[in-house]
Amino acid sequence: MIDRQEGFSRMRTLQWVVLIIFALLGGRIAYIQLFDARYKELARTNVMRREVQYPPRGEVFDRRGEYLAQSRECYDLMVVYRDMDKRGFDTAKLCNIINIPPKRLKQKLADARMSPRAPLMITNYVSKEDKLRLDAASFRGFYTVYRTVRHYPLHVGGNLLGYVSEASPSYLKRNPEYKAGDYVGIGGVESAYEPQLKGRKGVKILERDTHGAIKGSYMDGHYDSLPVAGQHLISTIDARLQRLGEELMEGKVGAAVAIEPSTGEILMMVSSPTYDPDELVGRERGNNYMKMLGNKRNPMFNRAVKGKYPPGSTFKLVQGLIGLQEGVLRPSDMYPCRMGYTVGRLHVGCHAHTSPADLRFAIATSCNAYFCYVFRDILENPKYGSVKKGYEVWQEYVESFGFGRRLGSDFLDEGNGYVPDRALYDKRYRNSWNALTVLSLSIGQGELGCTPLQMANLAAIIANRGYYYIPHIVKQVEGSDSLDQRFYERHYTKVDPKHFEPIVEGMWQGVNVAGTSTAARLEGYDVCGKTGTAENPRGKDHSTFLSFAPKNNPKIAISVYVENGGFGASVALPIASLLEELYLTDTIRRPELVKRIKAMKIAYPAYDR
User: Fold this and answer.
1) Residue-wise pLDDT tens digits, 457-510
2) First to last CA, the chain
3) Which residues make Cβ contacts (< 8 Å) with residue 552, sequence separation at least 6?
4) C-alpha dist (Å) from residue 220 to 42, 55, 144, 297
5) Are 144 and 78 in contact (CB under 8 A)?
6) Between vectors from CA 543 to CA 541 and to CA 548, what angle results, nearest 5°?
7) Rounded CA gap, 108 and 104, in Å?
8) pLDDT digits (tens, 9 = 90+) for 53-89
9) Which residues partner with 309 through β-bridges?
10) What is the pLDDT of residues 329-346, one digit of tens each?
11) Burial code of 87-114, b = ≥16 C-beta within 10 A, e = fewer?
12) How many CB atoms sit inside 10 A of residue 243's CB?
């Protein structure tokens, strides 16, 4: 009896084991059929091949309709290792058509063998002519994918336009909507307007036969989607001005920026040295990129928006405006200058000119002493009770001109510049400092740092008598009637418009009557200008010039900054003047000056040693 019960128990156990095994198998089959998409995808890859259809990237025009960036046809060569004809494959013939070394092709095929069903790119930048040769040769398993590649027909504006490159792994991690093999804008317009320029990818689904050969479109293309081209951009740039600016700045380190005051549109943005953006297109892109990285003058650094320079004497315009608004200065106030400003052992030097001077003459002649007096009167104003409080008020005025912060332009990497705050001096001098301690700020020196874009914006503010529009590089996006609203809003300084008139008059006199800027005079165009010579502790002084024209209803505001260029009138002024001449008159009347400036090459010990 006991044996029968034990046998029955064992049989029941065996039955349960069999039931559990069948349940597990049934559950696994149900999971595979209902939930697991891997086998479904493998089945699909046996009969279908998905080909990404890349859209043409949007093109970029200058303000007159001339191409700055174009898209031209090229192809990626892809391979599906499983579909290759392994025995009849002619390695030498393929290498000859696409012009790549056999060693590289073998390495790519070895990579493809690791995932034999997945497409892998053999090489990119295949020309249309080579694509036709590939089609005629009919290499099984190989196919081409249509792309567009950038072409920059004017070969200008490297830092301004940026370039296009394959998305890096770090970029893909930050932007999961992009996939490996996608291209993305790097720097300048290409980066700032990537969402508008990139377009939208499509897909083509092809059907295979039992031997893996392509039969045609799956379901007659019912599931295909067409790529959508990127939007065209009309930029604010004047290509003629940009080209001349880069030619004049060649052999020099610095930047030149021109703005249309009435709109904030950037007419020209030169960072020097620059690079030809076409050098970062094609198979030599990597080699050219490494050469640029090895150049100590750093051509890929956009000095126009990221450089931080002492503004020098151009900053005296801001000091005068603050003094007028604060009531510590009247245009008729006279101050002496005996080759500079001296208090005890402190001396700020100046060049020889008639003394005493009023505000207009001090601007025209760039008198250092005059603005030392003005700066001290601002900080030592009795109504604030202390120099430190007076300094905080001064800082607020300066920042209202757009210094010490980003202006909000459409350059993603725009710099802040630097305006020192009270805390810096409290810490450095242990709360024991006064107006004389920071007197170098009166003439745009000391800790002040400004970007060339901020300095050009200062020229636009003065041209507009107290306000500016945020500088921007794009005028219109295809399919859109307007830009971001912020580009249409006026931004006012803390200085009343009435106080700008004597400043403008001083700038006009400096160019058209007597002063440091007379070489910028253009007959009939009422140019207003201010030179600057910024002290440089590591070599020759920097040359800078700030200008706008005409005096009334100004069309252009410009700032030029040349490192180690010396006096403002020596290098920066003639460059700015020639650019204004071209923009205002549509011609160059001083070809000999163009030739002289182009031939001027400046040595830079800090970069060249």
Assistant:
1) 999 999 999 999 999 999 999 999 889 999 999 999 999 999 999 999 999 999
2) 105
3) 526
4) 21, 21, 21, 57
5) yes
6) 155
7) 6
8) 889 999 999 999 999 999 999 999 999 888 888 887 8
9) 450
10) 999 999 999 999 999 899
11) eeeeeeebbebbebeeeebeebbeebee
12) 17
Amino acid residing at 590: R
β-bridge mates for residue 257, sequence order: 269, 559
pTM, whole model, 2 decimals? 0.88
Contact status, residue 75 vs residue 45, Cβ threshold 8 Å: no
Residue with tokens 């956009």: 302
Tokens 């004497």 -> residue = 313
Question: For residues 403 and 421, what is the distance between their CA atoms, to the nearest angstrom?
Answer: 12
Neighbours of 355 (CB within 10 A): 17
Which of these CATH numbers, 3.90.1310.10, 3.40.50.10860, 3.40.50.970, 3.30.9.10, describes 48-235?
A: 3.90.1310.10
Among the CATH numbers 3.40.50.1820, 3.40.710.10, 1.10.1040.10, 3.40.50.140, which is that of 239-608?
3.40.710.10
* Token reading at 300: 């890929």
- Element counts in the chain: helices (H) and strands (E): 22, 20
For residue 313, what is the DSSP state?
G
Domain spans in the chain, listed from the N-terminal domain onward: 48-235, 239-608
From the list 269, 247, 243, 192, the residue with the least C-alpha distance to 454 is 269
Question: What is the phi/psi pair of residue 75, to 5°?
Answer: -140, 150
Q: Which two tokens stand for residue 275?
A: 């690079």
Using alpha carbons only, how large is the chain's radius of gyration in Å?
A: 33
CB atoms within 10 A of CB 116: 14
In this structure, are strands 60-61 and 163-166 parallel, antiparallel, or unpaired?
A: unpaired
- The secondary structure of 339-366, three-state, reads CEEEECCEEEECCCCCCCECHHHHHHHC
Sign of CA dihedral 599, 604, 607, 609: positive
**CA neighbor of 257 nearest in space, from 237, 274, 240:** 237
